[in-house]
Amino acid sequence: MLLDAKSLKHHDYRKSEELILYKFSLALIFIVCLTGCIHIISPFDAITYKSLIDLKIEMKFAFEEFSVRGAESKEDLEKVQTFMVKVAQLLEYEKGKEKNIETVKQIEILNSLITEVVNRFKQQEKLSAAYCGLKWSNIESAFNKIIDSEKSKVKR
Predict the structure, then answer these.
(1) Among 147, 155, 129, which residue's Cα sits nearest to residue 65?
(2) Domain boundaries, the chain
(3) pTM (2 decimals)?
């Protein structure tokens, strides 16, 4: 079978299209593979994880005690204010990491819960046992979400 000039030109054009499509497909596969290697969130941080666990346990013991007797002494206020400082420190540490928006948002929620407790304590000069029990439930939930989020991050 003989190919005339017109069909030969069409054949070359078709091969050119196939080559372009092939190169495009390879480039696309390369880009997809490359983006799979790039973290879109910050990696697991053992310091963050330990800080969260330690602070959660400290606060748990304090709030469990407050949920039985309430909180009204100067020492109780200082304890809650210390928690607020520790959460603020953790928040600043997390803000310094790249690709960490979600964790920062979660810790900001935790920070607002603690700040709310401190402000209420200062306004009313005490916290009822019922309030402390309910507030601990919210704080514990916030901690659990942040800890679960940190655990799910890729470990280096």
Answers:
(1) 129
(2) 1-38, 46-151
(3) 0.73
